[in-house]
Amino acid sequence: MTLHIENVTKKFGSFTAVDQVSFEIPEHQIFGLLGANGAGKTTTFRMMIGLLNPTSGRITWNNNPLTTRDSQLIGYLPEERGLYPSLKVSDQLLYLGRLKGMKKSEIIPEIKKWLERFKVPEYENKKVEELSKGNQQKIQFIAAVLHKPKILILDEPFSGLDPVNVEMLKEAVIELKKNGTTIVFSSHRMEHVEELCEHLCILHKGNPVVHGSLKDVKRSFGKKNVTVYADFDLRFLKDVSGVVGYKEVTEGVRLQVESEDIAGRIFDMLQGKGFVRKFDLEEPSLNDIFIEKVGASYV
User: Fold this and answer.
1) Are 138 and 93 in contact (CB under 8 A)?
2) What residue spans of 33-103 are helical by DSSP H?
3) Closest residue by Cα to residue 57 from 23, 13, 15
4) CA 176 – CA 205 distance, rounded (Å)
C-alpha cells in the first residue's frame, strides 16, 4: 500500500501555499517532509488528513482517494498542541479513541500499554494542564497512535522533549514503522531526519526543491566535508581551489570541498607541515544541503 501525493497545489486566493508537489511513500517507510517556516509543510499535512482540499492534484492511498471518511486510517500529531487542558489524561484518550471508532474495551489496554511504555503510568488520572510540556507531548503522541493507524503524520514530534524522551519517542516511531505503519515526518532537527528517514522532500515557498532517497540526495549534492585538526596554522587551506566553505573551530578547521579529489589534494598539502591529529572526510550533512537549497539553516 502506497501513499501518493500527485501534482498537489493549494491556493488561498492569489497566494499559492503548495505548488505542484509530488511524492510517494511505500508502507514500512518513514518519509521526511522538510522546509523552513511557511514552506507549505503543515498545509500539505492538512490536505493529507482531509482538513483542506487541494486546489488541484490528487492524494491517494492504495490508489484510492484519501478523504475524511478515511480518518480512522490516519494518526496526526500536529505541531500546535490540541489537548483539552482540564480533562484527565485517561478521559482525553478515551474520547479521542472513540472518535476513531474504537470500543472502550479496546482503548483502555492501549492507554495503559503506552503510558507504561513512556514511563508515565501515574499520569492516567491527572489533568493535562498538570503535566509538563514534554509529558503533554507524550500524551499527544499516544492520542495519534492509539487507534493503530496505517498512516501516521508527525509534525515536529520531538519539540519540547529532553534527549531521554526524544530517544523514547524515536524508538516508538521505529517500532511502528517495522510493524507496517507509513510515517510522514517533519522536524527542524536535521540529525533526527537523517537518522529516521529513508526518503525526503524539501519544500521552499511551496515548491519541492529536493526530492528522493537520502542516499541519492547526498550523492547528487557532490560536495564533501573535511575536518582537519593540526598543530600548525591551517589558514592557507582557505585559498585552495575547490574549497567552497571554510570555518575555524577550536582544534582546527572544517571545510566544504567540491569533490573527493579536492580532499585528496588537501591531504597531500598537509604532508610535512607538522602533526595532524585528525583528517576526516564526510558526506555532506542534510543541514548543508538545506542551507544551499533554501538559503537558511534549520537550526
Assistant:
1) no
2) 41-48, 89-99
3) 23
4) 31
b/e code 224-251 from CB counts within 10 Å (16+ = b) = bbbbbbbeeebeebeeeeebebbeeeee
Q: What is the CATH number of domain 223-283?
A: 3.30.70.980
- pLDDT tens digits along 8-21: 999 999 999 999 99
> What grid cell was written down for 44?
500539505
Class of domain 2-218: alpha beta
Bridge-based pairing state of the strands 56-61 and 64-65: antiparallel
Q: Which residue has the cell 526530492?
A: 211
What is d(CA 153, CA 201) in angstroms, rounded to the nearest whole number? 14
**Contact (CB, 8 A) for 107 and 94:** yes
pTM of the predicted model over 0.85: no
